[in-house]
Write a structure and sequence with these properties.
Order of helices and strands: EHEEEEH
Keywords: Kinase, Nucleotide biosynthesis, Transferase
Domain Ribose-phosphate pyrophosphokinase N-terminal: 4-70
Largest sheet: 3 strands, parallel
CATH architecture: 3-Layer(aba) Sandwich
Mean pLDDT: 91
CATH topology: Rossmann fold
Radius of gyration: 13 Å
Strand order of the largest sheet: 2-1-5
GO molecular function: kinase activity; magnesium ion binding; ribose phosphate diphosphokinase activity
GO cellular component, one term: ribose phosphate diphosphokinase complex
Number of helices: 2
Helix content: 25-40%
Low-confidence stretches: none
CATH class: Alpha Beta
Structural class: alpha/beta
InterPro entries: Pribosyltran_N, PRTase-like, Rib-P_diPkinase
Length: 70
């Protein structure tokens, strides 16, 4: 069985924390950087190679920002 990793972006951190608690997994760290020109950079400081990865993100307002983080 593959290792499971759970990530949360900025869209709904409280929901991600609740899901992590319910499934008994820690949230893996993810850094979200927004640049002045509107670009977004996501950094995952740990390897996800070979893991099953789940990303929790809302696409509610602000839709463009939240969707682009995905």
């Amino acid at each position: 069985m593959h290792e499971l990793k759970l990530f949360s972006l900025n869209g709904n951190r409280p929901l991600a924390e609740k899901i992590a608690e319910e499934v008994g997994l820690p949230l893996s760290p993810a850094r979200v950087n927004h640049f002045a020109d509107g670009e977004v950079q996501i950094e995952l400081p740990e390897s996800v190679r070979g893991a099953d990865v789940y990303v929790i993100q809302s696409v509610s307002d602000p839709v463009n920002e939240n969707f682009m983080e995905l």
